[in-house]
Design goal:
- With 70 residues, this protein is an all-alpha fold.
- It has one domain.
- Helix content is 57%, strand content 0%.
- The chain has 3 helices and no strands.
- α1 packs across α2 and α2 packs across α3.
- It is globular, with a radius of gyration of 11 Å.
- The N and C termini lie far apart (35 Å).
Length: 70
């Protein structure tokens, strides 16, 4: 249950716009790896797919690029 609680906290922080870009990428990588990206509301799946399409995260959920906050 511990990891699920962490994901829930991260999702709440994401919704509140409290995460840095690298934290967002890690969150979505985790959601992709777990399959949750495709079962949550549509915007999560669309964001996950956009990160995959942009080459930021692999379809397996591996982070492929280092992002530097602006």
């Amino acid at each position: 249950m511990g990891r699920m609680k962490d994901i829930a906290i991260d999702l709440i922080s994401f919704e509140a716009d409290e995460l840095e870009i690298d934290e967002i990428v890690e969150l979505f990588a985790t959601l992709i790896r777990s399959g949750m990206a495709w079962t949550l509301q549509g915007s999560y799946g669309r964001t996950a797919q956009a990160l995959i399409d942009q080459g930021v995260v692999s379809p397996e959920g591996d982070v492929l690029t280092e992002l530097i906050p602006a």
